[in-house]
Write the structure tokens for this entry.
Amino acid sequence: MSVDKIGISRGDVELGPCVPAKSRVRDRIFETACELFYQHGIHGVGVDEIAAEAGSNKMSFYRSFASKDALVTEYLRQQEREYWAWWDAAVARYPEDPRRQVVALFEAQLEIAKTNSCRGCALGNAAAEISDDEDELSTLVRAYKEKVRKRLQDMARAMEARDPERLGDALMLLLDGGYFTRLIFPLGSGPISAALPAVRALIDAHLPHSTP
């Protein structure tokens, strides 16, 4: 997911005169593709559209990327890196408090959901498009989601939950579900507004000696 979509400001990158023209073209194509993929889906955007929107052409596209699949792979890897940067920033203020870290994640998600540019989780969206025969892409997305699941289960374990695996999975359902409902319901309303109370209630139900 791009930095704009996870609440981290990208800002404009100035490319000095020493940057080769080929690199500038490649970067422009990549940035354009990231935005188009997120807004319209991986399969909803073709090479011609990416090249045109980037102010380039098909020849320059294939000089920069071996194929559209190669570009999609790079896009997904970039979104994953940016997602983990967002996650780490969200929990960094509470290094010794796993419960507060979980709540902080959902607070940060709610802030993203309030923006007009939010279209959900980029890798989650990709999972809905990618078929099992797209081995590299499906493996990449599956590994990412497994890592999200493990992190949440580890946080539940650090809270000393009775059943950390089940609590972690329930939290993941809320995290992913929040993004998907954001695509359907108007800005500022819908089920995602109930996420924080649900998170707190889930944690309370799974801890032997819960504190508010």
Notes: Residues 29 and 183 are 26 Å apart (CA to CA). The two ends are 32 Å apart (CA to CA). Residues 1-19 have pLDDT under 50 and may be disordered.
